[in-house]
Write a structure and sequence with these properties.
333 residues; 16 strands; single chain; alpha+beta; eight-stranded mixed beta sheet; five-stranded mixed beta sheet
């Protein structure tokens, strides 16, 4: 019966059912194996940055970026210094406070250097995507980007959280941002007493056979975000299973590769390490590993007049030159 309803939904959207005949087992995915099986978090699919230079060269050659492939091979064979912004797994985590009515530039703080908002314990929140910057992705020109967001939803009528996946596709030109702001991801996500967990990744999609799948995710149906009820919903597991199947299908194609991949646990503690949960915007920046100990958010601020992250004191204004994702946490109303 579940498969029949999915068939009707996609048929109405104008997409052939055969397109989504990816893995029939996915429709039988349960909360238990979503929680315990690492394949559902895509850990068995390495990001481009986690591959050695030779492996990155092979992947780049698959997508037709011969020039970059040769440079990565030279880095392996001759020890030459060559940087591309997507070859790192290191990330910096910033937070922009929710300052209603302010017209001034807003400081960005490390997400662990803020006060956790304990009023959000047990409350429902919404997650919205505001930015994906494509400073440097594998290949050239316009990139098809599959965005996957995992979260836990602590519903009121069960002890364990629901495990949710939501994915959406965007197109972005090299060196620019995708055209999105305030894109709903989850509406009504309930926070646990200890906080909440997110896993976020972007996938560069180069395989032409995935174009029809990407077209579906650009439909109004797919862009509405995942609305959540106060109590557990039987349809959530199969919906999450469908999102997982689509993402796995795309990752299984040779030309497609993860670019950014981050795990975030946001809590209410006051420890020096970790990150806190509060209402505001989180910025996740992919940075070279050599900057890990020198990165200082004081060098950057959010320019409210342009809606951009720019270098502090720069003239003319210099945009942050790295791949990054910005999503927003607001209280659900």
């Amino acid at each position: 019966m579940i498969k029949f309803h999915f068939y009707r939904m996609f048929l109405i959207a104008g997409i052939s059912f055969n397109l989504f005949f990816i893995n029939t087992d996915a429709y039988a995915i349960t909360e238990q194996n979503i929680e315990t099986d690492p394949q559902y978090f895509f850990e068995d699919y390495p990001s481009l940055g986690s591959l050695p230079p030779k492996g990155r060269a092979e992947k780049l050659r698959e997508i037709g970026d011969e020039e970059a492939a040769k440079k990565h091979e030279e880095k392996t064979n001759r020890g030459l210094f060559y940087d591309s912004l997507y070859e790192y797994t290191t990330h910096a985590y910033g937070f922009i406070a929710n300052e209603k009515g302010s017209t001034q530039n807003t400081v960005i703080r490390h997400a662990g250097n803020i006060e956790g908002d304990k009023s959000l314990k047990g409350k429902r929140i919404s997650i919205l995507l505001d930015k994906i910057r494509v400073a440097d992705y594998p290949g050239t020109g316009i990139h098809n980007i599959l965005f996957d967001f995992y979260a836990q939803n602590y519903v009121t009528n069960q002890e364990k959280p629901e495990h949710l996946h939501f994915n959406q596709v965007f197109r972005g030109m090299e060196g620019q941002e995708v055209a999105t702001i305030g894109q709903p991801i989850f509406n009504g996500l309930r926070v646990g007493t200890m906080g909440i967990s997110f896993k976020v990744m972007t996938i560069n999609v180069e395989n032409d056979t995935d174009e029809l799948i990407l077209n579906f995710f650009e439909s109004d149906t797919a862009k509405a975000g995942l609305g959540l009820a106060v109590t557990a919903q039987p349809a959530i597991a199969p919906l999450t299973g469908l999102a997982i199947s689509v993402t796995k299908s795309i990752l299984n194609k040779n030309k497609n590769i993860k670019v950014q991949e981050v795990n975030m646990g946001l809590d209410f503690d006051k420890f020096a390490s970790g990150a806190r949960l509060a209402k505001g915007s989180y910025v996740v920046v992919q940075i070279p590993d050599k900057l890990e100990f020198n990165w200082d958010w004081k060098n950057w601020h959010y320019d409210r007049s342009s809606g951009q992250i720019v270098q502090t004191g720069s003239s003319p204004r210099t945009l942050i030159p790295y791949n990054y994702i910005m999503f927003r946490v607001v209280e659900y109303e």
